[in-house]
Amino acid sequence: MLQGLKARTGRENQVYDKGYIRKVAGCVPINKKTGKILLITRRKREGWVLPKGGWEKDESEEEAALRETYEEAGAIGRIVSSIGIWKHHITNRGLPKAEFRFFEMEVEKLEERWPEMNERDRKWFSYDDALKALTKPFMREVVEQCSLAPFDNNNNNITSFDNININQRTEKVKTFLYA
Fold first, then answer.
1. What residues does the Nudix hydrolase domain cover (predicted)?
2. Suppose 59 and one of 63, 127, 130, 169 were both cysteines; which one would form an S-S bond, judging by CB atoms 3.0 to 4.6 Å apart?
């Protein structure tokens, strides 16, 4: 599945829900030993994001997330949990244009060459630095739900980056989904 240096392109094979809502899958790629998160640069604009992309008809959401993480970041690993679903870019009819499902992936290998290596950079960030670097506010919410997020004595998430502006066009649908 992850062989080759050519990324899938086009949207004709992608999965859409009722109302033409594009289904997108992505990962929070982590290194448990170092406590770091792998981010990639955006293709058309400056800034750091999580790897993600369209879920295609011939794969599961998990397979799509793994494929996109390989294509965009050159990271290979295994999914250890489902983080949740976020609806994004609400239209004037109140419908989302895309629904993002994110998974946590433990990175086992970083390829030296990968399909989008000439279009994107990749970099490991500490948890706090990843929250500061992410350009999309809803992706900060995703990272806050990963296993690297700090917890207090009552097992509640502690947001270590306090000045996060919540994107008013992003609606968080579910915080946790367990496989």
1. 20-148
2. 63
Distance CA 159, CA 169 (A): 21
CA distance 52 to 14: 13
Instruction: List the CATH code of the domain at 16-160.
Output: 3.90.79.10
- Distance CA(111)–CA(76), nearest Å, equals 8
The SS3 assignment for 141 reads helix
- Strands of 42-166 (E only): list them: 48-49, 52-54, 75-90, 96-110, 122-126
Backbone angles phi, psi at 83, to 5 degrees: -90, -45
**Cβ neighbours of 95 (radius 10 Å):** 14
Question: What residues have CB less than 8 Å from 29, skipping those under 6 apart?
Answer: 37, 38, 50, 51, 69, 73, 75, 77, 105, 107
Residue from 83, 99, 80, 101 nearest 91 by CA: 99
Q: How many angstroms separate the CA atoms of 109 and 47, rounded?
A: 24
CA distance 154 to 161: 19
Average pLDDT, the chain: 79
Residue range 99-118, pLDDT digits in tens: 888 999 999 999 999 999 99
Query: What is the band of 174 on the pLDDT scale with cuts at 50, 70, 90?
Result: very low
